[in-house]
Write a structure and sequence with these properties.
alpha/beta; Spore Coat Polysaccharide Biosynthesis Protein SpsA, Chain A; three-stranded mixed β-sheet; 6 helices; 22% helix
Length: 233
């Protein structure tokens, strides 16, 4: 278990989902009989993360209703404009405590051990400002667009489309956001600075991970969860 909080990013428009998000936000799309946001909450709770924060923007009222009985979750509606990944995390900092915290994307499904609990063991705050949970491309079900990062022998990361895939899970120190702008900005604003200092590291997840950011990803993720022969793409 951990005393870290977890920020679950769930505010996006889900445009790659096409008509599936015409009337609902992407985190409420069901995979294997459960909403994507509930799959993410399972992982946060399974690692003992507390507090848990979820953001929302597109059709945020539906998200608020869905989470209304989740008394361990703080829901933050981003209004009037969406804050992007970095801005959304910065907005949640007052609710996450003073120490390092997890972030987790809401459009993924996992098969294997609890991902947050698994890579927490690799966290070394003396040498790291950020730690990202990665998978090889052949264990990234439904992935389109190649990899994200190359990992050196000592675990440090650099951008590389031929490399490992970021799963959307990471550990960050809150002080990384001290000099960031108010309003929307990308997490890449954080990552570039941490990589330049040689303090962004990666850990490789031992199980399978599915990207449910596009319609075809739903069936692939369901097959993966059920132990079927989902073919990573």
């Amino acid at each position: 278990m951990t005393d870290m909080g977890c920020m679950i990013l769930a505010a996006g428009f889900g445009t790659r989902m096409g008509t599936l998000t015409a009337e609902r936000p992407k985190p409420l799309i069901e995979v294997a009989g459960r909403a994507l946001i509930d799959h993410a909450l399972d992982q946060a709770r399974g690692a003992g993360a507390a507090p848990i924060v979820v953001n929302g923007h597109y059709r945020a009222a539906q998200m608020a209703v869905h989470l209304a009985e989740a008394h361990d979750v703080t829901f933050l509606e981003e209004t009037p404009k969406i804050l992007d990944s970095g801005g959304g995390v910065k907005n949640a900092l007052p609710h996450l405590g003073a120490g390092p915290f997890f972030t987790l994307n809401s459009d993924a499904v996992w098969r294997g051990g609890n991902p947050l609990r698994e890579f927490l063991g690799a966290w070394e705050p003396e040498v790291m400002d950020g730690l990202m949970l990665l998978v090889p491309q052949d264990r990234a079900v439904g992935r389109k667009g190649g990899g994200d990062f190359a990992q050196s022998a000592d675990g440090r990361l650099t951008p590389d489309k031929a490399g490992l895939v970021w799963t959307g899970a990471q550990i960050l120190k809150p002080e990384l956001f001290a000099d960031t702008p108010d309003g929307p900005f990308s997490m890449w604003e954080i990552w570039r600075g941490v990589m330049a200092c040689g303090r962004l590291f990666g850990a490789v997840y031992s199980g399978m991970w599915a990207d449910v950011g596009h319609p075809e990803g739903i069936a692939l993720a369901e097959a993966m969860v059920e132990g079927g022969d989902a073919v990573p793409r």
